[in-house]
UniProtKB/TrEMBL annotation:
Part of the 50S ribosomal subunit. This is Large ribosomal subunit protein uL4. GO terms for cellular component: ribonucleoprotein complex; ribosome. The lineage of its organism: Bacteria, Pseudomonadati, Bacteroidota, Flavobacteriia, Flavobacteriales. It comes from the Bacteria. GO terms for biological process: translation. Forms part of the polypeptide exit tunnel. One of the primary rRNA binding proteins, this protein initially binds near the 5'-end of the 23S rRNA. It is important during the early stages of 50S assembly. It makes multiple contacts with different domains of the 23S rRNA in the assembled 50S subunit and ribosome. It comes from Brumimicrobium oceani. The keyword Ribonucleoprotein applies. HAMAP family: Ribosomal_uL4_B. SUPFAM superfamilies: Ribosomal protein L4.
Length: 208
C-alpha cells in the first residue's frame, strides 16, 4: 500500500512511500496483541510490594491467655492476624512479574497493531522530524499543522532525533519512540501514529 508523505507544515509532498502489506495489511491476531500488551504492562511493575506478616511484627511472644477455660478461642500470640496490630495473613510479597514471549509472536502482535491503525486510516508518514533545538513550541507547531494537537499521538522516528524526544517530553498526549523500540502497547494506546520517513525501512527490517 502507498502512503503520501507529509511535511512538518501538514502539506503533502510529491514523495510517496510503499508500506509493506505484510506489516500494515494483515489480519490482526487479537490473542497475540493481548499477550504482548500483557507482557509490556507486567514488565512495568516493580514488584516491590510487601506487607508485614506475623514474623515481621515486633511484639511479645508470650501466650496471651491460658489455653482452656476462657470460653473463647485459643490464642497463642499477640502477633496473630486476627488481632489488631498483628501481621497480615497472605499479604503481598516482592516478586518478579516478567514472563517470556517468543520473538515471532511479538512480531505478529506488532504487525497486527499497525494493521489495525492502517485499517482505521490513523497512520501518517512524515518527511522528517528533526529540530535544531529541543523546543516544545516547535513540536506543538508540527502537531497543529497536522491537526493532531487534540489527539493522543505516537511519533516513530529514526535513531538521530534526540531533540524530538526532548521537545515532546512535556506534552501530555504525545510520545516519541525510536523505530527499533516500537511496541504494541504504544501503538494501540495512541489515536494516531506518525511515522518518520526514515523509520519506515527500520520497521520493515525488524518486523519482516
Amino acid at each position: 500500500m502507498e502512503a503520501k508523505v507529509l511535511d512538518t507544515k501538514g502539506k503533502a509532498t510529491s514523495d510517496k512511500v510503499t508500506l509493506s502489506d505484510s506489516i500494515y495489511a494483515i489480519e490482526p491476531n487479537d490473542h497475540a496483541i493481548y499477550l504482548d500488551v500483557k507482557q509490556y504492562l507486567a514488565n512495568q511493575r516493580q514488584g516491590t510490594h510487601k506487607s508485614k506478616e506475623r514474623a515481621d511484627i515486633s511484639g511479645s511472644t508470650r501466650k496471651i491467655k491460658k489455653q482452656k477455660g476462657t470460653g473463647t478461642a485459643r490464642a497463642g500470640s499477640i502477633k496473630s492476624p486476627i488481632f489488631r496490630g498483628g501481621g497480615r495473613a497472605f499479604g503481598p510479597r516482592p516478586r518478579n512479574y516478567r514472563f517470556k514471549l517468543n520473538t515471532k509472536l511479538k512480531r505478529v502482535a506488532r504487525r497486527s497493531a499497525l494493521s489495525l491503525k492502517a485499517k482505521e486510516e490513523s497512520i501518517y508518514v512524515l518527511d522528517g522530524l528533526r529540530f535544531d533545538t529541543p523546543k516544545t513550541k516547535e513540536f506543538i507547531s508540527v502537531l497543529t499543522a497536522l491537526k493532531l494537537e487534540n489527539e493522543k499521538v505516537l511519533f516513530v522516528v529514526g535513531n538521530d532525533s534526540d531533540n524530538a524526544y526532548k521537545a515532546a517530553k512535556n506534552l501530555k498526549n504525545t510520545k516519541v519512540v525510536s523505530a527499533d523500540s516500537l511496541n504494541t502497547y504504544d501503538v494501540l494506546n495512541a489515536r494516531k501514529v506518525v511515522i518518520a520517513k526514515d523509520a519506515v525501512d527500520v520497521i520493515e527490517k525488524i518486523l519482516n
